[in-house]
């Protein structure tokens, strides 16, 4: 069997042949056992490739990307809002690698529910920083094993910042077991409906500082480590 | 919504971008970031888009964004791309999974790209995106699948 035959067989499986070529391939398959074997091998190959592109990871990626695309729809209609999203995105994406303890990783993207972003006029309206210097403190005792600690710290930090914002505190401490994370919110980067919004700041731990971007909307909360 | 926006935010394009991004990054978090950056760049540069086919334009943005991001990253170290085997899991299934990933990684960039594109695109559409003839797409796809088939041990030769 020649490479040309193999290409025809491949194209046959891809439904990319015209009527004449289909007849030619079907004749080849019925008369040549090597062609039949090759066709089966190609099917196995295609199945494995399909499996890669329909894996669990792809499904999770689909959820995340779909959500992101949804948030772009209202944004894309206003150049002013778009500018806000882009600047905020790149502000937070400058440093998607970060380290806190061993490594806290996250995927949180910016989210903007339909209509969640407050209408702002073309004239630049300053976004007022609406938190005060009251210190918020939260203490949590370690209850899980090491394997889930990274995930737990990420959740706890998100929770703590959420509570800080709710109480109007720009500074907070999360005490987790023997570790203390000092949280500082320094700037409000975006206003969302219902008094919600996005804040930038940093978290100090073990003498190291990590920049963060935190957003709270009506139905969602996200924390991005940008450093 | 403008025509540009409806083309850009279409489901068909989203799936194409996902497949291509995943074939490049092999990691959903990196793929996610790559796609989000691509969308934002496309919106930011919409004035530069002219024509009626947005897919090739956006795919090019994605490819360039990926190239830029890989320049900034450290080179992979040997063994970096090997997933850890669980002690209690189904090792047989994991080994097959690992084979599949490794075999895809053994393909060169364009071969992986063309395989990813074929998941949702016709030869003609791929030729539009890659700016090559449809016949060349067929040959590239053949070579890529041949490498993958042999790597997976599906050949009886």
Give me the secondary-structure topology.
The complex is a heterodimer of chains A (227) and B (157).
Chain A lengths: L2 H11 L5 H13 L1 H21 L2 H20 L3 H15 L38 E9 L8 H19 L1 E8 L2 E13 L5 E9 L2 E9 L4 E5 L2
Parallel strand pairs in A: 1-2
Antiparallel strand pairs in A: 2-3, 3-4, 4-5, 5-6
Helix pairs in contact in A: 1-2, 1-3, 2-3
Chain B lengths: L2 H6 L2 H15 L2 H17 L10 H18 L18 H16 L2 H10 L4 H8 L3 H18 L6
Describe the protein in words:
The complex is a heterodimer of chains A (227) and B (157). In chain A, helix 1 (3-13) packs across helix 2 and helix 2 (19-31) crosses helix 3 (33-53). Chain A has two domains: 3-53, no CATH class; 72-225, no CATH class. With 227 residues, chain A is α+β, with helices and mostly antiparallel strands. Chain A is elongated, with a radius of gyration of 26 Å. Chain A has a six-stranded mixed beta sheet with strand order 1-2-3-4-5-6. In chain A, strand 3 (179-191) and strand 4 form a beta hairpin. The model of chain A is unreliable at 86-124 (pLDDT under 50). Helix content of chain A is 44%, strand content 23%. Chain B is mostly helical and 157 residues long. Chain B folds into two domains: 1-73, RNA polymerase sigma factor, region 2, helix turn helix motif (Rna Polymerase Sigma Factor, Chain: A), CATH 1.10.1740.10; 91-157, Orthogonal Bundle (Arc Repressor Mutant, subunit A). Helix content of chain B is 69%, strand content 0%. Chain B contains eight helices and no strands. Chain B has helices at residues 3-8, 11-25, 28-44, 55-72, 91-106, 109-118, 123-130, 134-151. The longest helix of chain B has 18 residues, at 55-72. The radius of gyration of chain B is 17 Å and the shape is globular. The model of chain B has no long low-confidence stretch (mean pLDDT 85). The A-B interface holds A 3, 6-7, 10-11, 14, 16, 37, 41-42, 44-46, 48-53, 57-58, 60-62, 64-66, 68-69, 72-73, 76-77, 82, 85-86, 89-90, 93, 96, 105, 107, 109 and B 1-2, 5, 8-9, 14-15, 17-19, 21-22, 28-29, 31-33, 35-37, 39-40, 43-44, 100-101, 104, 115-116, 118-119, 122-123, 138-139, 141-142, 145-146, 148-149, 152, 154-156.
């Amino acid at each position: 069997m020649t490479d040309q035959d193999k290409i025809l067989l491949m194209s046959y499986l891809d439904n990319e042949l015209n009527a004449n070529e289909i007849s030619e391939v079907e004749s080849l398959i019925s008369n040549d056992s090597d062609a039949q074997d090759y066709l089966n091998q190609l099917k196995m190959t295609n199945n494995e490739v399909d499996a890669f592109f329909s894996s669990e990871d792809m499904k999770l990626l689909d959820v995340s990307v779909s959500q992101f695309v949804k948030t772009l729809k209202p944004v894309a209609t206003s150049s002013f809002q778009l500018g806000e999203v882009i600047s905020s995105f790149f502000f937070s994406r400058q440093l998607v690698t970060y380290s806190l303890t061993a490594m806290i990783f996250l995927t949180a993207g910016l989210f903007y529910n339909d209509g969640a972003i407050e209408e702002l006029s073309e004239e630049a309206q300053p976004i007022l920083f609406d938190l005060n210097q009251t210190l918020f403190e939260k203490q949590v005792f370690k209850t899980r094993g090491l394997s889930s600690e990274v995930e737990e710290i990420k959740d706890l930090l998100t929770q703590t910042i959420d509570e800080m914002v709710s109480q109007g505190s720009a500074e907070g401490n999360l005490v987790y077991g023997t570790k203390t994370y000092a949280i500082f919110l320094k700037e409000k980067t975006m206003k969302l409906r219902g008094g919600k919004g996005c804040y930038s700041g940093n978290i100090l731990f073990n003498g190291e500082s990590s920049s963060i971007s935190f957003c709270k909307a009506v139905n969602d909360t996200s924390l991005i480590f940008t450093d | 919504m403008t025509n540009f926006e409806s083309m850009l935010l279409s489901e068909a394009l989203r799936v194409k971008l996902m497949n291509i991004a995943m074939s490049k990054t092999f990691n959903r978090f990196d793929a996610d970031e790559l796609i989000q950056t691509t969308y934002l760049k496309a919106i930011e540069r919409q004035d530069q888009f002219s024509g009626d086919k947005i897919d090739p334009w956006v795919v090019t943005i994605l490819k360039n964004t990926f190239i830029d991001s890989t320049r900034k990253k450290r080179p992979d170290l040997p063994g970096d791309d090997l997933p850890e085997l669980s002690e209690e899991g189904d090792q047989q299934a994991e080994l097959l999974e690992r084979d599949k990933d490794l075999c895809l990684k053994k393909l060169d960039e364009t071969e992986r790209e063309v395989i990813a594109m074929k998941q949702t695109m016709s030869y003609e559409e791929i030729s539009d995106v890659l700016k090559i003839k449809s016949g060349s797409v067929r040959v590239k796809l053949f070579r890529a699948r041949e490498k993958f088939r042999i790597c997976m041990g599906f050949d009886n030769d």
